[in-house]
Design a protein that fits this description.
- By secondary structure, the protein is of the alpha/beta class.
- It has 2 domains: 134 residues, Up-down Bundle (Four Helix Bundle (Hemerythrin (Met), subunit A)), CATH 1.20.120.420; 206 residues, 3-Layer(aba) Sandwich (Rossmann fold).
- Helix 2 runs parallel beside helix 4, helix 4 packs antiparallel against helix 5 and helix 5 packs across helix 6.
- The radius of gyration is 20 Å and the shape is globular.
Length: 348
Amino acid sequence: MIPTLAWTPEGVRFIDQTKLPLDESYVIAATYEDVAVVIETMVVRGAPAIGVSAAYGVALGAIRSTAESSESFAPEFERICARLAGTRPTAVNLFWAIDRMKVLFASLRAGGASMDEVRERFLAEAHAMYDEDIASCKAMGALGGELLPDEGGVLTHCNAGALATAGYGTALGVIRSAVEMGKKIHVYADETRPFLQGARLTAWELMEDGIPTTVICDNMAASLMKAGRIQAVVVGADRIAANGDFANKIGTYNVAILAKEHGIPFYCAAPWSTIDTATPDGDAIPIEERSAKEVTHHGGKQLTPHGVGICNPAFDVTPAKYVTAIITEKGVLRAPYAESLREMELVG
């Protein structure tokens, strides 16, 4: 699998996604602050990968701490969690992972655990999240792969692959699984402006796997759909609200509307940790606004006039009415999503 991130004695080793596809280089995050910067600068990105990264960041914070007891470590722990939580606001997996570490720390602290035990348990918990993420991606891949056509074009937007997770991927995991089933899939990857995750990352991943892939400009999807070259759409998500609305990379909403217009099934694949039943609908999902320079510049070259206004939301929200099914490791959910999500949550 593509090594998105890995634990080493020096810290967390990340493939630098800002350098792909032409430069396969790696970054070592030796402290929790390093992990925070890696998340903010999109060296690592994708909701599941961000969550696992944050867990390792908390573990690094404990490992590097000079605190002699869990009690004396408590204020530092809160600062570590706050710093990591402030990196990117939309991906709910980030907060899910941090909350999981908070629950663990509360238990350890109540039991009078030593700092050595805290360090050991934090790292074990991060490793567990890493393994669980890969397992969930493979499970949803198997479920989602059944939904894709036996032959035809599948459109995806942004990168919801191994690079967005601990491994295998969500939307690309579905595609990988379909190919493993013997289905003849040709992937059309939206370039995904302005950060070009589709052109740089999705295309690189799929070519590494030998899966036929064509990169298209974001404004070509409607034309290809009309021409009958797209038989399904599958994307990932950064947060799914209780009613089935979901946030994903900017431009996903456009694709969903186009798919609906052309009668093409539109699937969202995400682990259960991406579902946020505390958020009632898409209007309540916080949307990150990123640097204007991502729009004004490319490859170090300025593309726009000096002083022009720039709008750069990182995500948009796709209403549940456009979603054919939500694919999770627990099962495939169908509308009405408020009911199916609630029922799946109760099942546990």
